[in-house]
Amino acid sequence: MNQEVTAYIENLPKWQGGFSSTLRDMVHETIPEAEERIQYKKPHFLKNGQYAAVISPSKDAIAFMIMNANGIDFPKGFEGPAERKWIKLREGDTPDLALLSGLLKQASSTL
């Protein structure tokens, strides 16, 4: 795990840090070989040097973005163009980690 990513997550508001830590763990369980780094001021996860996922905090939400999403059927609640989809999680939400992991696994399988 990248120390910059750890420090970034630790400096988020408590609920955002909790979501980000949970999402980070899910990414590493789904893509064990994933590399992580801070890029464009947010945590990015790469597989074979290509973007697989991004955690993007905003004032009132955490957006979890899945890259390489072309041709994947995403359920209601996801936004974005065909090549990348994200879902916004807000304080009090319960992320469906099994769903997110399945979508991430499918999207990253060709990276």
TrEMBL record:
<protein>
    <submittedName>
        <fullName>DUF1801 domain-containing protein</fullName>
    </submittedName>
</protein>
<feature type="domain" description="YdhG-like">
    <location>
        <begin position="22"/>
        <end position="107"/>
    </location>
</feature>
<dbReference type="Pfam" id="PF08818">
    <property type="entry name" value="DUF1801"/>
</dbReference>
<dbReference type="InterPro" id="IPR014922">
    <property type="entry name" value="YdhG-like"/>
</dbReference>
